[in-house]
Amino acid sequence: MQRFQGQRAVVTGGNRGLGLAMVEALVARGARVTVVARDAERLKEISTRLEVDVIQGDVADEGLARSVIAEVRPTLLLLNAGASPGLAALHEQTWEGFSRSWNTDVKAGFHWLQHALRLPLAKGSRVLLSSSGAAINGSPLSGGYAGAKRMIWFLAQYASGVSKELDLGIRVQVLVPRQIIGDTEHGRLAAEAYAKKKGVSVAEFLAGFGAPMAPKQVGEYVATLLGDPKYDQGIAFGVKGDSGIASLD
């Protein structure tokens, strides 16, 4: 708990799903949190309920990334925001849907990391990017999503290398949920698509991952990653409902 007292956290996409669970876990531990997202109504609700600061905007906008990092100067930066990919087989995809994750998730990670390194953030700051198990196993119904999530993993590695080379003291890591989380909007839609393809129920499909993993559990895993000194080193960490946190380096 003491590790979070006085910490300034920025969470992109922190108004719903896994991002909101991360915000709630950080607030519960005493961090001062700023949430960046597009949906004004959701931002207003969580600002009132959780007493967090909110900034409305497109996380893929370089100017927004630059201004938020310069003004808030976070010591914890959680880059969680991402677009919902188009769900269809390759031959049924449009390029717009196929590339959506690249134009939002990867573009946002690129700009926010650049400005975190250029400012730079204070020594000892932590940056945590959100990837996906699709970065390991692929995701044939999600267009360019799997490739985008693998690129986010690479971005964490590249940024970590820059931090070391320039002696910035910024730790950059990546979170890799190893299962579809059916309690989120994106997870539910993905589970429905893959269950239909396999000819099974959504419940049967999700059971194939083992124990379910709720958003709140992911939020707690994130707080553990950021708060427990044993996770200070390393870049990639996978999380699952039945096995917890595991290094993927």
Separate helix tally? 10
Distance between the termini: 27 Å
* CATH T-level topology: Rossmann fold
Uncertain runs with pLDDT below 50, 5 residues or more?
Answer: none
Keyphrases for this structure?
globular, eight-stranded mixed β-sheet, alpha/beta, Rossmann fold, 249 residues
Quick overview:
The chain has a single domain, classed as NAD(P)-binding Rossmann-like Domain (Rossmann fold, 3-Layer(aba) Sandwich).
What does this structure look like?
By secondary structure, this protein is α/β, with parallel strands linked by helices. It has a single domain (2-179, 214-247), classed as NAD(P)-binding Rossmann-like Domain (Rossmann fold, 3-Layer(aba) Sandwich), CATH 3.40.50.720. The protein is built from 10 helices and 8 strands. It has helices at 17-28, 40-50, 62-72, 95-98, 100-118, 134-137, 145-165, 185-198, 202-207, 215-227, and strands spanning 8-12, 32-37, 53-56, 76-79, 126-130, 171-177, 236-240, 244-247. Strand 1, helix 1 (17-28) and strand 2 (32-37) form a beta-alpha-beta unit. It is globular, with a radius of gyration of 17 Å. The model has no long low-confidence stretch (mean pLDDT 97).
